[in-house]
Structure formats: structure tokens, C-alpha cells
């Protein structure tokens, strides 16, 4: 899972460097598709669901919360924000991460939205400690986001991840009722705050995938795949230079019960 997530991390880095006014969401989707082939991995998104998702990355602009379908007709403009969600399967294990990028120069409120959403993910990661519960993660996101005057999307939640893209337990970004499992060593969670500048409600386009803020407000989305370990949270989808060493044929990190 570490190796799968390192591929995801590097592809998102590449996408971040290409995001600029004049680039299309289709260009982003094509870069991601080329990277899947280059790394010899399988897309986690292409063909997923009903109807089958038609791309290897979700590219969502401005009020689009998640699941935006890349298009050569959708041109990014200065001041936009674009969220890219990307996942792969490598040797039977999945990786999943998302980031929201500024296109050119964005206004102060958009900057604040991105900063608050990213910070809420970091606060959630801090709760990924053996013995704590999923609701501690949810509370960390919700309390930070709402204190800053933004709203947490409730229709979509994070999830466990492993040999399947979506596994138990669900990881909501708000404190609700229902199951509240304890965090155990060896669990891996895809934690993904989705935050609207306005109200939390969303609507889905006719393509049956693109979900956008119902009130038309800006939305941001950040995600990491995080392993629960005895020594604390291990963010698998955060850059780790050891990946290049392993890919070059040298010994990489030993994945054992002590570090996963």
C-alpha cells in the first residue's frame, strides 16, 4: 500500500506542476492516464461504479465537490480552484489521495478555504492513534472547519482502504450516530475532508457523477491514506524518497509489523 500510495503522490505532484490558466481538465486526466501506464499500475477509478467512471482521475472545478469528469472542453481560468482525486492499484493493494490546487491567483477567501480544509486533514491525521476511535477523526475535521465558518459535506465520507478501494469502516467528516470503531494497529484509512465555502448540501449532474455544492459555493477536497501503527500515524500518500531507491532495484523499506 505504501508503494501504491507513493505512485499516487508523485502523480499528484506532476499534476500540481501543470495546473495553470489555459490547461483543460482533460489535459489533467491525460497526464494521469499516461502516468498509470508509465508506473505499470492499474487505475482505481476507471470503470468504477454504475455508470462506469470514464477516467483515471476525478477533476472537480470550483463548486464541484468530487467526481468531476475530465474534459478537453473545460478550460481552467485564473482564480479557479481544481480538486484532483486519484487512486491506483499495485500488486493487489490500493492507494488513494486528493489535493485542491489554486489556478493562477485566487482570492483571499478561496485561499482560506484551501488552507482550512488542508489543516482539518492534518488534525484528523493526528487522531490516527491506536485506541482512539473513528469519531475522534470526524470531530477533528468538523470542529476545525465549522469554527472557521465553512461547512462539511455529509453525503460523501472517507473509508477504509486495502485490497479493495473502499472498505470498512466509513470515516465521516462530521460526528454522527452509528458505528464508532476503535482504531487498531494495521488499519489503513482514506481520510478526505470535503469542505464547502457555503452550505453542505450537494447535487449531482446529469452525468450521474459530478457532485457540486447546491448553492454554487466553492468547494475544496484533500485526502491522505493513513496507516494506524504502534508508533503513530503513517501517511502512506505523503512523499517518501525511499520509493525511488526501491524502484531502482535497491532495497527499499522493510514493511513489517513494526512499521505497518
Put the structure in a nutshell.
The protein has five helices and 15 strands. By secondary structure, the chain is of the alpha+beta class.
Keywords for this entry:
single chain; 260 residues; alpha+beta; Creatine Amidinohydrolase; 5-stranded antiparallel β-sheet; 4-stranded antiparallel β-sheet; disordered C terminus
- How many β-strand runs? 15
What is the number of independent domains? 1
CATH superfamily: Creatinase/methionine aminopeptidase superfamily
SSE order:
HHEEEEEHHEEEEEEEEEEH
* Rg for CA atoms: 17 Å
Give the overall pLDDT as a whole number.
Answer: 94
Query: What's the CATH first level?
Result: Alpha Beta
Largest sheet: 5 strands, antiparallel
Under CATH, the topology can be stated as Creatine Amidinohydrolase
How would you describe this protein?
Helices cover 27% and strands 25% of the residues. The chain starts with a helix and ends in a 13-residue tail after the last helix. The C terminus is likely disordered. It contains 5 helices and 15 strands. By secondary structure, the protein is α+β, with helices and mostly antiparallel strands.
How would the blueprint of this fold be written?
Layout: H1 2-18, H2 25-39, E1 42-43, E2 57-61, E3 64-66, E4 81-90, E5 93-102, H3 108-126, H4 134-147, E6 151-152, E7 158-160, E8 167-171, E9 188-191, E10 194-196, E11 202-204, E12 211-213, E13 219-221, E14 224-229, E15 232-235, H5 242-247
Amino acid at each position: 500500500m505504501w508503494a501504491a500510495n507513493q505512485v499516487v503522490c508523485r502523480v499528484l505532484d506532476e499534476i500540481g506542476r501543470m495546473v495553470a490558466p489555459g490547461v483543460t481538465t482533460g489535459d489533467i486526466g491525460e497526464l494521469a492516464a499516461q502516468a498509470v501506464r508509465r508506473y505499470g499500475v492499474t487505475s482505481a477509478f476507471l470503470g468504477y461504479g454504475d455508470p462506469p467512471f470514464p477516467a483515471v482521475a476525478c477533476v472537480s472545478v470550483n463548486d464541484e465537490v468530487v467526481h468531476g469528469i475530465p474534459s478537453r472542453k473545460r478550460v481552467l481560468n485564473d482564480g479557479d480552484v481544481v480538486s484532483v482525486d486519484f487512486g491506483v492499484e499495485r500488486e493487489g493493494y490500493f492507494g488513494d489521495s486528493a489535493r485542491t490546487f489554486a489556478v493562477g491567483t485566487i482570492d483571499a477567501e478561496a485561499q482560506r478555504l484551501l488552507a482550512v480544509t488542508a489543516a482539518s486533514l492534518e488534525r484528523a491525521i493526528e487522531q490516527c492513534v491506536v485506541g482512539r476511535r473513528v469519531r475522534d477523526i470526524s470531530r477533528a475535521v468538523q470542529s476545525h472547519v465549522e469554527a472557521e465558518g465553512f461547512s462539511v459535506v455529509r453525503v460523501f465520507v472517507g473509508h477504509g482502504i486495502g485490497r479493495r478501494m473502499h472498505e470498512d469502516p466509513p470515516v465521516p467528516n462530521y460526528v454522527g450516530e452509528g458505528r464508532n470503531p476503535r482504531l487498531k494497529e494495521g488499519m489503513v484509512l482514506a481520510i478526505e475532508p470535503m469542505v464547502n465555502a457555503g452550505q453542505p448540501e450537494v447535487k449531482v449532474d446529469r452525468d450521474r457523477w459530478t457532485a457540486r455544492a447546491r448553492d454554487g459555493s466553492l468547494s475544496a477536497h484533500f485526502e491522505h491514506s493513513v496507516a494506524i501503527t504502534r508508533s503513530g500515524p503513517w501517511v502512506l500518500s505523503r512523499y517518501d524518497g525511499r520509493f525511488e531507491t526501491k524502484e531502482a532495484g535497491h532495497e527499499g523499506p522493510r514493511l513489517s509489523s513494526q512499521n505497518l
